[in-house]
């Protein structure tokens, strides 16, 4: 496989992406880039190509932390270094794998040597490798939250700290942080989104000519990568020189009071939390001016900076689409415009006269990311949101046209009705799965985890994890005489080491099974039902869960959303969910059983929580009630933790949801009972139900 990197200047379109990356190359203090987009949009290709454009760095020979020989880090673990001449090496691009451990990221101390010899033996991690280069995190939204916190703290402080059992190491860690993610696989928390300086949205081009060019260049690169790169070498050199020139010009760029007022007014107008957005916009506008070869920041720089720095900071919950109202932005900039600014300063083209920027059209994506989109969409503008089409065909019902009757002889709804809006979401308290699991880190159920309170110690399996110092000393103490101990040092062997056992929280698979039949729409309940499910989805987002959505109506159940970390995708499908037809409760439960069976094979450590939202009616087909009872028994026999949300309303209640909960071995709660103020005892009830199933 060729090691030749695809040229940055050969990318097609992706104007916002290329500009954001180049601005960070000019001024790393901008704070990095988060690239959001669907799969196959050249995200990884663009990032890897950028590394070749960065100027080479001077380093102290033999320093594992890439200290600058002119101004070496006084606290470098390999130091102290004397200022002087050093060697040069290309800027590095270091990739952080999704499954990396904290030790791999920040580095690790050799605790065995620290205990036995009293020396600090530190093995640098990826943060040290990335110093003065690029740190690239693909699928950053899938990275464990504690790793993202460590990563962003290091990026903000420019240093990494490793402290363990009284031993402390600090080293410089200044890098260009680039994260890529597919929103369909889940979102980052708003607090983490805010820590990225810029965000760009990318999508595949719908223009045939651009897609043709993408394929043409990709095939040419695959056939002869060296020859292809050679053809673009001139453009690469020109762009590299421009980056170097912009870096040199950056300290002389003037950010005037007029531009500062526009920045502050824009952040205030869009109600952005905190002051980080103002600072990022100021640094971005300054970098834009340097990139354009100017020494003054103009309104066009402020506008482009806002489009890159603000959209993701306006996202306050997972159901908000990032975006910016450009008309409102223009009005704000016009209102606070500096009267003395030249007319040309309001041109929206960030570099209208520059002819050094080579034609960057389609991206062949040699790393498998797929073709790139065609051209910019306004820099950080609103992305399209994928929404399923609303089914037009009515649900299948009784061919005779007679009203459907459900359990107890009550009408259960006729043909399909239009989708209704969800009620206002509300705060819920979490539902938890009984027992202690070992699933992925999250915030829902108890689990043995890498982070949390220490509950015991054990021998390490494989590499040594968090050291349990007291247990290690207890294991080594009885053997000191036989090991010939002389002096104050403790003689520690590998067999003495003990690793901490910690209890934290895990994420779960929350599978929603929602009744969308006519009986649910009969009393205008569907809006309240959707509001309740939306509230539970918001809770699942905050708890870092995977979610799935099954609906049942007519004669069948449908897996509307396979289990995913993207709760906003579930909310989108819920929003357009129509109702009507019979109530095939058994089909919904059987579909849920099949989904959970497959998910257990895919991810055995992730425990499920089944949430059935229904009034308990079962109609359609032969013996619908008996069939639903047998389907519920399958879940109870498998020990699936379940909750039934009873949607029955009105003065006459049949109690069918309670009967279903009994067959599932589940807790039952009403729609009103889901609210935080009314749900205090529900977690305890879920645990009690789980304990009862195990005892039986």
From TrEMBL:
Region (Disordered): 335-465
A Pfam family recorded for this sequence: Mg_chelatase
InterPro entries: AAA+_ATPase, BchD/ChlD_VWA, ChlI/MoxR_AAA_lid, Cob_chelat_sub_put, Mg-chelatase_DI-like, Mg_chelatse_chII-like_cat_dom, P-loop_NTPase, VWF_A
Keywords, comma-separated and alphabetical: ATP-binding, Nucleotide-binding
Domain VWFA: 509-686
PANTHER family assigned: CHELATASE-RELATED, MG-PROTOPORPHYRIN IX CHELATASE
Protein name: Mg-protoporphyrin IX chelatase
Lineage of source species: Bacteria, Bacillati, Actinomycetota, Actinomycetes, Kitasatosporales
